[in-house]
Amino acid sequence: MVTLVARQSIIIKCSMQTSALLGNYEFYYAAGLFCRLRGIAVEEDIRPAAFREKLLPELKAHQAADAKEQYLVDMLLKYEPSEEYTEQMKELLRWGLGEERIWQVN
Known about the structure:
The chain is 63% helix and 0% strand. It has helices spanning 2-16, 24-38, 48-61, 67-78, 87-97.
């Protein structure tokens, strides 16, 4: 259930261009989605701080295709992950990496 809520939250935030990432669960889905969009390979068990450091150069250099994608990048740039890490975060990362229905809440 947590994974579905985190996914839907990111899609809604990017669509409405409002709010910010509220925790590592959202961060992992959003970061996985960004990696999918950019074709970035990432280890499934990467920890939060290392994941952010890996993404920073890509985020800073990214030219977004549209406003939703730009808002995703903006949220990721502003977010400072905590040290918290659970198996559900790995699941959210995999979901973002393999997302087939980008920007669809259903």
